[in-house]
Design goal:
This protein is mostly helical. Helix content is about 60%, strand content about 0%.
Length: about 150
Amino acid sequence: MAKRDKNSKACRDAVRLKYEGVPYADIAKQTRVPKTTIDNWFEKNGLLHNAYEEYALEMDALIRKENLADIRRGAQTAIKMLTALMGSKSDFVKLNAANSLLDRWLGKAKQPIELPPDPTDPDDMSYEQRLALFEKTYGKPPANNSDKRK
């Protein structure tokens, strides 16, 4: 059987249909190509593997561009709505609207919290401080008599 050109109508249709989520069996019916051939085309080293990857990247970029345009169109309405909510009688609604506006325009605050050492936390103490705390809490340990010679 002659090798098919990846730019043929059947191949282009197969790539498009795969991107649209059409099952291989249905792609085979629509392109009049055996399902086993469709399976082989999209395998790792198959005829259409790279073509599909490129097509998917192009389509995803196009969709992102369209979605971004939609978001930009809706952003003005969202800003007006949040601004209007800041005039609410409810302090809770006002606060959330203000936070939403600030977070979206300035980004969420990300300041690390550094706590000073806790003098009562054993992890923040020196060995001597830990020993003193132990003795204060439990008393001095009993003398070890095993070292004394008889």
